[in-house]
Structure formats: structure tokens, C-alpha cells
Fold:
Amino acid sequence: MATVTSVNPYTQQVNATFETLSDNEVNMIIDRAHQAYLSRKNLSFTDRAQYCFQLADLLDKHNDELAKLETMEMGRLLSVAKKWLTSTADLIRWYAHNAESYLAPKQFNEYWIQWITQYDPLWVIFWVAPWNFPFNQLLRAAVANIMAWNTVVYKHASNVPLCAQAIHDLFEKAWFPEWVYTNLFVHSSQSEFIIAHKYIAWVNLTWSEGAWSAIWSLAWKYLKPSVLELWWNDAFVLLDHNDTEAMANVAMQCRISNWWQRCNASKRFIVLEKHYDQFVDALVSYMEWLVLGDPMHTDTTLPPLAKKQLVEEVHQQVTDTIAQWAICKTWWSALMWNFYAPTVLAHVKPGMVSFEQEIFGPVASVILSWSIEESIALANQSEFWLSAVVYWDNSKQCQSVAHRLQWWMIFINMPAWSQASLPFGGIKKSWYGKENGPDWLRAFTNKKVIILKKE
Structure:
């Protein structure tokens, strides 16, 4: 029997090991999830919301212990983990408060007919979740689905099984009907078996380009709709500004969000020539003040990366970029355990690895621009697009630049962020489909149209 193992990225100690499910056990779970869908699909919005409010309250009540699980499994700073759990509880409450109004039937009249649109649940949804937001990213999808009254089966990332089990237990403690939410400890090789199941109606994945292609191919093969998210390489565009050092500080706040391991964190910093040298020097100074240590401790500002494999990937990307004649302004190296030295790469250009690929680690790639026009062109030169950040003293001109950037989300004079009510997603090779907002509640439903002849 295969196993899933949780390893503490800071201490390298094994937290726990779980056995994976057999195909027969998975088949039984999906069948029961379908039966739960059939027996509960007419449950009122009020009842569904009440379960979700109970779930949010449990997240608040157990914030400390759940945050420690995140820190033990993926290395997030404990203080940051606590804040994200609070945010996740608020996100759940937003869906519970708003689902009924966004999913309510609507009536239309035209000529001699009238018609009604209503949003019916589908069946069972299969989700493959990422490790970098073990509670938030999974629950924002699960709760939206459950408010639409689908049932969901989840394969969480293999390095956060304790968080996966904790989420499963939270649904039970919130008194959700049995089999509405089920955690699956399965191997990635079982994905086709799951997707092919006759009761799986929809597939979602947040992962790498390779996994995305594999899951998309399977979803297409079995005619299952999907929402898929993969790499992003978000741009931070600094135009004219009177305080370059302050902007460098803001840039680092945009970069270190979730301590380097966040998809919509800025990764490519495009800076006009007049600010360039001062901006790079300020980034280097900022990096030098980071304190490596235990993510459980309040004085730590440089926690480990989540996995040893990630450290190796980051080091290879940095080394390859330097070999392409980027200039490293810091000491770049894999350190003890899962730590990677904070790195500033200057004079990064199109075609270089760190310009073309997302780096999920403590690396800032700084790109020289000689004009506003070139800054726009450099920002748009990517295959992985979610959010761009634009800073300029002239906010009116900043909006003009934003209209010319070909990104899904553009933040003017503020870091990128997300919330339940705000549509969230990318374009090109970053994503198809969108999360959050009213459309996310409707995404996993059948928009049924009933046509009537007027009396």
C-alpha cells in the first residue's frame, strides 16, 4: 500500500504518515458522495449557510492549532498562518451570506413567452488542491460548491496531509451531512480512475503546467468540464516616483507575500532607468535584513521553503539565469534544510529563465526599462498572466497604463490581493475559468432555462 508522508520543512522530522486509498475505496466514496447529493440537493440555502457559519466559527475557535499545522507542514510563518485562517473564516461567511441572492431563480418576459433561469447543482466535483494555502485555497472552492449544493471529493497536495485531514474533520465537527465533503488520500496515478467515474461532473486543479496538461487531457477525454490554474509570473511596474527606496520596500512586500510561495506575488520588477540602480540597491539591503529561523518564532522573517524539491528547482532556475548573463547582487545558494538564500537578480532580460518562468522562492528579478512604452511591452511579454502591479505618482496616467496591460487583474498603487467577492483568475497559460465572486458560485451549476407560454 502506498503512503502519503508529512515532513516538517524546518526540522526535517516526519509529522505523520497516511496510507492511500485503493480504487475500490475511492469508488465507494464517490458513490456515497453521489447519494449525498441526491438526498440533500433540495436543502434550503438557510440550512446550507448555517453549516458554513459553523465551519467558519470552528476555524476561528481552533485558529492557533490549525495555524501550527500549516507551519509544521509547509513552513509558513505562524503569525501569517493565523491571519490567513481568519481571512478564510471571513471568506466562508461571505459565501454563506451571498449564495442565495446570486443563485436565486430569475424570471424574464418577452413577447408571448416567459422564462425562468435557475442554477441547479451538478453532481460530485473532484478537486486537486495546492499546498501553498492549505486551508484557504481549498475551502474557498469547497464552500462555494457546497452552497451550490454539489458534493466534493478532494485530493490535497501530498506534503500537507495533516491539513487535509484537519479540513475533513472540521466538516464533520460543523455537522455537515455525511459525504458532502470527503478527503481522498490517493496517488496522482489514480486521477484517471477518479475523473472517469460516472458521477464525477467537474474537475479542478491548481498545480504546475505539466500536471495541468495531464488533468486537462483526462477531463477532455472523459468530457468533464474543468477549471485549471497553473504558473504565474506577475509583473511589478515602477514608473516615475519621488521615493525609490520606499517603492523598493513596497516591492519586497509584494514579493514576500506568503514568504515567496504565492502565485499572485510580484516576481518580475520592471523599473525605469532613472530609478534602477537605487531600486536594486534597496532590494539588496532589504534581503540582508531577513532573519533565517524557525517559522514558529516571532522574530523569524525568512522561513524555509515548503519542500526540498522546491529548493532544488529554485537553485537551478537562479543558476541558469546567471549563466545567461544576469547579474546576481547577492550570494545565491541552497542553505541548510529547506532554506534558500535571498537573491536579487539584476539586468534580467527576455529569454532568461527568471524572466520566462515563475520562481517560487526568495528571488527578485529586476528588469531595466528605458521608457514607459518599454515597461508596458516587458510586462506584457509573458505566457503566465494573473495580476500586475503598477506604481506611479500620477494616478491618472497610471490608469492609462493599466488599460494597456494585458493582464487579468491590475492593481494600481497597491499590492496584489484577493477576496471572496472579487473575481480571481488569469489568462493565457495561467488559467482558464475564474474563482471567487458571483460567477464562482455559478460556475459549478447547470443554468437551467424553463420556458412558458403566457396565459
User: Anything to note?
Assistant: The longest helix spans residues 78-103. The domain at 3-230+430-453 is CATH 3.40.605.10 (Aldehyde Dehydrogenase; Chain A, domain 1).
